[in-house]
Amino acid sequence: MKRRTRWCLTVVGAAMALSWVGPLHAQSRARATDVPTIPHEAVEGFIKLPDGLYFGEGIGVATNSQGHVFVYHRSGDTRLFEFDADGAFVREIGAGLYGMEMAHKVRVDSEDNIWVVDEGSNMVIKFNPEGRVTMVLGHRPEAAVGAVPTDNSGPDERYLFARPTDVTWDQDGNIFVTDGYFNHRLVKYTPDGRYVGQVGGGSRGNESDQFNTPHTVASDHQGNIYVGDRGNARVKVYNSDLELLRMYEDTGNPWEICISEGEHQYLFVSNSNPDSNPAASWDQTGEIYKMELDGTIIGRFGEAGKNPGQFQTVHGLDCRNPNELYTSEISAWRVQKILVGTTPVS
Amino acid sequence: MRRSVQCMLVAAGLAASGAVSAQTNAPAIPYEAEDALSGFPNDIHLGEAAGVARNSRGEIFVYTRTGNPTLSLGTSRYMSHSGSRVFKFDSRGRYEREIGQEIYGALFAQQARVDRDDNVWIVDRMSGQVIKFTPEGRISMVLSRKPEAMQLPVTPPGAGRGGRGGRGPTQGESFRNPTDIAWDSRGNIYVTAGIGGSRIAKYDPEGRFLANFGGDGDMPGQFDGIHGIAIDAEDNLYVADYGNERIQVLDSNGNFRREMSGFGAPMAICITPSPNSMLYVSNSNPPDNIDIDGEIYEVRLDGTITGRFGRAGKLIGEFGTVNSLDCKVPNDLLVGETGNWRVQRVRLRPTQ
User: Fold this and answer.
1) A93 to chain B, minimum CA–CA distance in Å?
2) Three-state SS string across B305-350, please?
């Protein structure tokens, strides 16, 4: 059996060097205190994997309007699995695809198209509900060119990403991509994939017009765009014209956010414990916050840990139904269905 | 799933920001476009559709960059594997099968062509190879040699040791970044090399090296990157001189005949069967920009531009970095894109 590595791993030396430039892990205790606890429990054994199929790092999880669950994970290869609303395996999507190299997010739009964001190929890929590719954003560096630096596309590039992180849409179908680890920007495209504009870009920073690793993005029914500015430990809210409306700075480092469906929408923010579990991190991080869209904190639930119902670096969060969440975790190779109470208990 | 859209007359105004050298006042040709391919198994996907070609029965072959190109670790040198595949479709574009599964030289698809005997030829930019399949899908000839190993940081194919003439990328049977292949009426083989290069290599029908044409520069008979080649019924070579934004016409001995321009930087090129042959050439947008270029021109063999259609974009009827054109059937083109992972079927001047 041959041992192989990916092209993008051929620059592993450079990538490791880069990762040491900034803080190694986004980790900070949330400012909010005396937050009520919301009861929650995991539905054990919900996801049923067939023999021979395994999850790797649980990078993204999303549901469609039928309640099907899509999981984008880093296994031997990066793969996308679909499960039905009872957690039974349905199929794999995009097996052997050109753009699936290093998973970062999966989201489902209002028409049940499935979008994956891949930080290895630097692409955002749209599948129709049948699981066929209908649009791609970004461009995979060409293998014939050889090993390329990870940050080969600059913040001025309209149609190239450098380790993009997430995607969302406003009510008109405009596309918003957080890009990401190197370009520190939020980019807007028309529904047809044409560049409209961006905020941030260039070097990371903590000014109001800057990001430090925009790591996750979600939108509400008004077309407002919520960006998890992970390194700056804040959620920034923009309107769909990319004008900054407000910032929420009390819930730690937003590794992952989501906004629920329905008339009354909620914002969930995960202050995930870092993926290498540094000392004392479990005492400071790992919880998920339930908030009103205006930033009011309703409560929190969960803690860092490896047991069911605990969280081990939440990287994917689906909250289509705010009372039945799905989490996917980096450091536990699993997807959990989490029942969340509606009333805080303390 | 097949989709069809009408894309008439969008070109004139919207593509006016295209290459300055392109003839933006060429008349817009009305056309219809649809996703050409369907019926894929769940685990078969097109990536970048670098090459598309039809045989005499209308069956379609696509050479696509898909899967993940890999290097081996824990070996004495870094060996490259996989990254591209050849898929066959029936004349209606329904998926039929794969050919050339896991072959040694399929790393980075660049082009596919079918000769008059229905042999299928693929050009691979990274292995530097040209591989000929019989109509049944078996390998019957190989030109050039894949470098045995890659160096890190990776050096371009042909620059390392290993292949015969590996250090002399412009000699004999060794290609660096080859781009396209064509045949004259006697079956002689012409290979262009290619991206960043200026070489046209000629072989006899048995694959014996005959001659090199070309050279770097902008004078007649010189080239600045060659992206494609097509040959007419009189054995004239039409060579897409990308950097010089022209097509040069050479005879089959490489003598310069004339040049034609006005269609931007030619990338993909094809010629319809005679009589009344027409040439189609793509002023492809770069893969990192859909706000410029992207249109395809129709040109008479004397160089007169008779029309244009399309623009860069992601919708059906728009084009994302066209890398391949098949025009074996007049007014019924297959367009392979690398910016969009698809092949479109484009019908020109459809009857309403």
Assistant:
1) 7
2) EEEEECCECCCECEECCEEEEEEEECCEEEEEECCCCEEEEEEECC
